[in-house]
Amino acid sequence: MFLCLKKPLPLHPDMSTIIYPSPIFGPVHSRRLGISLGINLLPADGKVCSFDCIYCECGFNGDHRPSLPMPTREEVAGKLEKKLQEMVAEGQLPDVLTFAGNGEPTCHPHFAEIISDTIRLRNQYCPQAKVSVLSNATMIHRQAVHDALMRVDNNILKLDTVDPLYINKVDRPQGAYDVRLIIDRLKAFNSHVIIQTMFMRGEKGERSQQSVDNTGEEFVGPWLEAVKEIKPQQVMIYTIDRETPTLGLLKATREQLDHIRDRVIAAGIPCSASY
Asked: Residue 153 CA to chain centroid, in angstroms?
């Protein structure tokens, strides 16, 4: 049985919010990626993200403003190399090096250079491991970010829906966000992209309850058309796995996820579902 060497801990003992160590955490066992060594390009004491999702395990942006800076490129490379040396000595190599953590990794000003460092270290210490980036796709208009993502093995980019009202209610972009432009930029990866989508049920709001269910045809149908237009190499659909900062959110059912997965596969695109 695989045991995590270092688990992310809640920011406070009485809170479910997870704030990850920085710049390296884990390894942890990912539902979708296997034994994953995490690379967190955000501060170790808070959250920095261009989304403020109501289901985020790291909590809301405003509740966890960091006081520490982002790790430097040199710090990331040094800590990553040290951890990989330890794992080689222990005979426990990662399946994947995953850029994730306390927010949006592509927000780091030296994201592209850090990707280059990571690929070099991967090739040196664990050439069989994949380099993965979990991103909300808000920075893919930057040419350096696009080019860096073209170099990683698993370019995993979020598209929860194509409905602007739902995006503003659930993903809550912290700046301008045009889903049509995002889709066009996803197409620009020429299929070197994995689409990741959160499906869930339930309601949000203390006074006026608002549905956050995106499992119905009014959401799934247009989303699937966008996916077919993007032509990704794969789609990953999933649902809530940990406690969320917003009350009232519910997991999508296994049957709902299986149905959506089967529709994607029927369209000729590989798809996995995590429950």
From this structure: 15
Q: How far is CA 100 from the centre of its chain?
A: 6
Task: Compute the CA torsion angle 52, 57, 62, 64 (nearest 10 deg).
Answer: -140
Task: State if pTM tops 0.90.
Answer: yes
Residue 32's pLDDT band (boundaries 50, 70, 90)?
low
- Look up tokens 């299929």; give the residue: 191
What's the CA gap between 30 and 46, in Å, rounded? Answer: 22
Residue 18, by phi and psi: left (phi above 0), alpha (psi -120 to 50) or beta? beta
Tell the residue number behind the tokens 């066009």, with chain if given. 184
With 0-12 / 13-18 / 19 or more C-beta atoms within 10 angstroms meaning exposed / middle / buried, residue 76 is: buried
Residue pLDDT, tens place only, 227-271: 999 999 999 999 998 889 999 999 999 999 999 999 999 999 999
Q: What are phi and psi of 3, to 5 degrees?
A: -115, 135
Q: How many CB atoms lie within 10 A of CB 74?
A: 11
